[in-house]
Amino acid sequence: xxxxxxxxxxxxxxxxxxxxxxxxxxxxxxxxxxxxxxxxxxxxxxxxxxxxxxxxxxxxxxxxxxxxxxxxxxxxxxxxxxxxxxxxxxxxxxxxxxxxxxxxxxxxxxxxxxxxxxxxxxxxxxxxxxxxxxxxxxxxxxxxxxxxxxxxxxxxxxxxxxxxxxxxxxxxxxxxxxxxxxxxxxxxxxxxxxxxxxxxxxxxxxxxxxxxxxxxxxxxxxxxxxxxxxxxxxxxxxxxxxxxxxxxxxxxxxxxxxxxxxxxxxxxxxxxxxxxxxxxxxxxxx
Length: 286
Known about the structure:
This protein is an all-alpha fold. It has one domain. The chain has helices at residues 2-23, 28-47, 62-86, 88-96, 100-110, 116-133, 146-168, 175-197, 207-231, 238-261, 267-285. Helix 4 (88-96) runs antiparallel to helix 6 (116-133). The longest helix is centred in the N-terminal third of the chain and has 25 residues, at 62-86. The chain is globular and about 50 Å long.
């Protein structure tokens, strides 16, 4: 449970940092690339062993890690754009409602069994995510639907890939180096994109963007690292992990929005938080 809690804390910080990007006029794409370089470096340091680069392609998880890294930077940019254009709460609900995708995947592929109470908890979690996050007049329900929809789909696919790779391709000892490979692939993808679209600015990242990327990179790495460890816990199936992780992140980001950005909570939002507490109890205890 500690690994799951730490993953929630780190993931919640990511949404807050994204919100601050707009406040401090950080260029999102540049900062995200530095973030992935930072996250890769943290993984290599945590792994603590020398590993010849030529042997990495021999790992069963290497090419899936490359594909996952490319998907990461696409979804991360979509998350940042959603946070800045539509608000932290909309980005949070779009990302975390995607818990339905890996939960269904776990039941279908791994034959995970869900009790009636746990199914009720998952349904309440989906309702909690929506009601705790949506704001009166939110663009989430109107013309701003495309961005959240893409974030929802991309986040769900990422969760499925993480579970699949964790379950059969990577050992716990390799979690740091696997995570580093994912983040390295994301960074390279970002650099290739910049070189193709902004060649003149390829090496003009700016101190503000570099600092913002470093600040983002540390919690970003540990959000994935601790999620992998939580999924590796025998007592918890993936449905439990993804449900608890996602609904707890929504609770945290909602409360942080109040404390840091003076976001207003309606009665509907508070009802969503109440549903979140109930859903966590149902999923965790049953």
